[in-house]
Amino acid sequence: MTIVLSSLERVRRSKAIEQAVANRVQRTGDFILRKLAQKQSLLSTTSNGKVLNSAAPLVVGINGAQGSGKTTLVRGLVEFLRARNIATVGFSLDDIYLTHREQQELAEAHRDNPLLQFRGQAGTHDIELGHKTLTALLRNDSAVDIPAYDKSLNGGYGDRVPLPEWQKTTPSVDVVLFEGWSLGFRALDDREFAHFIDQVRKPGGGSVLCKHSRKYSNENLRDINENLVKYEGMLYPLIDAWIYMRVADADVVYRWRKEQEDELAATGRPSLSDKQLEDFVTRFLPAYEMALGKLDKCGFISSGLLPAPDTLRMHLDLERNVVAWDHKF
């Protein structure tokens, strides 16, 4: 009897999750449709005497912490939009990671910075490739090869897959969905960075909001912050609108990732030990600690083409439930 109840509970939980995902896709999909209509209207006009590219798709950036459900959301949005005959392509910031060789060279050049020894942080992406891909998609006049990355290659260190394995779009794309856990993170200016470091090094252990940054030197943290400037200049101005899956505390990333690893272990698949998981996740958390406050205060950088608000923000609780929606920016 206990087994039957357990099975029923799993079915109920699965249905509840499916409904929550469907609701999330509907809300974000409606936002994208509004922004697409605004851009299509705009493209029939001129800007400073210059005729805009009337074929340019809407580019939507999606930011959400690791484990928040970005991939599931993008998959659902692609289905939602294509069902309405809106040609949609989705890819990730992960897809433009440096090649394995390039990452090795980066790690060697920054041997004193543990944050740059492995992919993930700002500085470990090929920003020129991302810029080239988005620019080609915005021209929308020919097929575009979308980069792809396989994290399982080279013993888990990963590598970009060969060009023939990249996703190839057809012309006339309407919407581009571009997602990443750190996509949209902004560099702190000198004053903001100095304040952040003060919080990290404050006598008595520093601010609890900066606890994961304490194990790294000021120079280590400065490298990551300064690397974001290139993202701000070459990627973000190509993004028209944002969907922000906001979390109140970056520590939830460890919890969500542990749930994923526990599920893998339960099915007999390879998974990280608790120690391996802690080592893995803590490499990413300083970026959250530096970035989340500024995102809440200043919002995202975008193309500036569309009328405000250009960001739909969903607030997630510890169970990934959406507890509120807003358009702060």
From TrEMBL:
Residues 59-180 form the Phosphoribulokinase/uridine kinase domain. Pfam families: PRK. It comes from Coemansia aciculifera. Signal peptide: none annotated. This is Phosphoribulokinase/uridine kinase domain-containing protein. PANTHER family: URIDINE KINASE. One of its GO terms (molecular function) is ATP binding.
